[in-house]
Amino acid sequence: QLLDDKMDLSSYLLKPVQRISKYGLLLQDMLRECESGAHKGHERIEIQTALEMIQFQLRHGNNLLAMDDIQDCD
Question: Out of the domains of life, which is the source (predicted)?
Answer without folding.
Answer: Eukaryota
